[in-house]
Amino acid sequence: MLYTVGEMAKKMGVTSSTLRYYDKEGLLPFVERSGGGIRMFKDEDFEWLSIIECLKKTGMSIKDIKIFIDWCFEGDSTIEKRLSLIEEQREAVINQIEQMQETLGMLDYKRWYYETAKKAGTCSVPKNMSKNEVPEEFRSAREKAKGHLSSEKEIQ
To answer: pTM, whole model, 2 decimals?
Structure first.
């Protein structure tokens, strides 16, 4: 089945202008064009677009995604390069997830802090609690907020 830019954009959950931009930047060498020059996407193009979107979401630049696409079209001689790039991006995503988990931990602590302050009618109650009075799941975030730890990993 063939899809127009608009149809494929809808299927991908992106805008038509995003697909046009990708094409302009050379990321879509696989896309066929009709006699009138209209981009026509096939079902198998969805996989290409999915990996482009995935790499974009990891923070990879359009320039580097283009290099990856070029390697794909060069064939099997670039498998090692592609694998290395995917492994690097995977590590970057793992690091982002760890950072976001730490951020979520701090937000959970501050939510607890302000809920406790609201119940008491003052911030002095949670502020002046001893370490042992603070629920265990918030202790590392509290210590970090006070500048006692550079990361939650240090208390483990």
So the answer is: 0.75
